[in-house]
Amino acid sequence: MKRIVVLSLALLIGAFSFAQKKELKEAEKAIKNNNFADAKAVLSKTESMVSAMDDKTKAKFYFLQGQALYANGTGSDTDVSAALKNFKLLRETEKSSGKMIYTLKVNEMNASMTNDFITKAQNALGEKNYAVSYKNFENAYMSSPSDTLYLYNAALLATSNQSFDEAISLFTKLQEMNYTGINTSYAATEKESGDEQIFPSASVRDIAVKMGTHTNSRNEKSESKVGEIAKNIALIYIEKGETDKALAAIDKAKATNPDDFNLLVAEANVRYKLDQKDKYKVLVSKALSINPNNVDLLFNLGVVSADEEEYDAAKGYYIKALEVDTTYNRARMNLVAMLFDQVQKYVDEMNGLGTSAADDKRYNELNELKNSTYMEAIPFLNGVLEHDPNNYDAAKTLMEIYSVLDDQPNFKLMKAKVDALQQDN
Predict the structure, then answer these.
(1) CATH of the domain at 97
(2) If we measure between CA atoms, which residue out of 42, 40, 83, 37 comes closest to residue 62?
(3) Does the predicted TM-score (pTM) go above 0.85?
(4) Vertex 264 angle, CA 260 and 270, to 5°
């Protein structure tokens, strides 16, 4: 009796295996004829049998399923994602078995697939279709897992599309793979033109230097994106109203990168978003101890100090920003705005005075303070125009100051400039 049972089981397995191979051949034939719908229909019949397949048959199923779903790039977004998952399962199956047959065929497809995804992603980005763009960047990463920049781009664009759950998933995946985004570029200066050129590798750059066509050989590392990733995760959680998770995301990143400049700035931005100004200033000050000439951070401290009516401190930060970068007109305009706030306080007090001798005396004092404050603003506005000659707001403000101060020569000069800028606009 046992022999009969064993024989029946063997026959059953043989018939089962034959059915699998027959359907896989049908699917393979349909794919060769670009009948992807037919191939999908045939393969759907064998999908429930995958767990019982041997590794070789299983790998072939994943390969054919991937091809049918991808449909030479014409498949739907859902089908293309499923195709890439099948190709991933194929690689894992053959890696486990040690026999690389279909993996090699998928690798041959990868370059074309990746280029197709990148083209679609860039075209969609040009049209500000972030949903299509991020999905295609994600597909590009799935087809070429070594190109982790595609995954980072996908995460950023998912955020821009306000697909927050998907963005967190993508950013978290980057964290789990310890992605830093740091890369090295190989640069040298061309002697003839004086232009900086970037080379594909150090060896190619070094050959150019040895030939004498280039000089000033150097390697340049990009900044880490660890802080940026943590910041984005935190800000998404804040947007979702999940503050605790936002701070947990920052703390998780700090555990391995406590003194990372970008991470300090990232946490500072989160604290600012949470209206924790004191913690913001502490973090930015720490970041400035690492990079004291970061003009944006100096400017931001000026803004926060001005908001808290710490005007002397704000002025100091704005001046420091201008010492670092003389072209930084945002600092000049904020300085002027702060001075005008002070002028308004003088004017408000002047308007509230009576007609007594004491009031007249106070009025004259305030008028002097108002005019001296206007005088203090003039060099900053001239500085704006020096670096941005077409700045209409700066020119008009200067014209109005000269009018208040009754400086007719400068008023006429600035009025002519304002009129000219108005005509150009």
Answers:
(1) 1.25.40
(2) 83
(3) no
(4) 145
